[in-house]
Amino acid sequence: MAQHGYNTMIHPAIEELIERTESKFVLVSLAAKRSREITDYWGDLGETGIGAAIPPQIMSASSKSLSIALEEIAEGKIEAIPIEEPEIDDTVDADDNAGDAGEATDDDSDDDAAEDAA
Fold first, then answer.
1. For the whole model, what pTM was predicted?
2. What is the pLDDT of residues 1-49, one digit of tens each?
3. Cα angle 22-25-29, degrees, rounded to a multiple of 5
4. In the chain, where the domains are located
5. How many helices (H) and strands (E) are present in the chain, helices listed first?
6. Do the beta carbons of residue 72 and residue 56 sit within 8 Å?
7. Are 17 and 74 spatial neighbours (Cβ–Cβ below 8 Å)?
8. pLDDT, average across residues 44-55
9. In sequence order, what DSSP letters do the residues of 38-83 get, joined into one string?
């Protein structure tokens, strides 16, 4: 890599952030959601009172909500909690579809018999 007289990487480093989350997708989703919460907090100051939104959890020199959210993730103040998805039972759908196919076959055979009789 080329050496510059200035820091070309963001702080915190992307590698550090990915280590704190499961994947890039989780990192982006978590940072975006937290950034919106911080923006809502700043927008609601003075209007709704204390407790309406969660304030930033760190002291930061940054004025950007996304940068603050990324710093919170790097310091471990914000974590993603995995959601357990319910299992879907596909056997019911397969039984229903098989019954429908059998009925159509019976109707078709009755039509064929009527045509043969005529």
1. 0.59
2. 445 444 445 678 888 898 999 899 999 999 999 999 998 888 877 666 6
3. 105
4. 14-74
5. 4, 0
6. yes
7. yes
8. 69
9. HHHHHHHTTTT-TTSSPPPSS--S---HHHHHHHHHHTTSS---PP
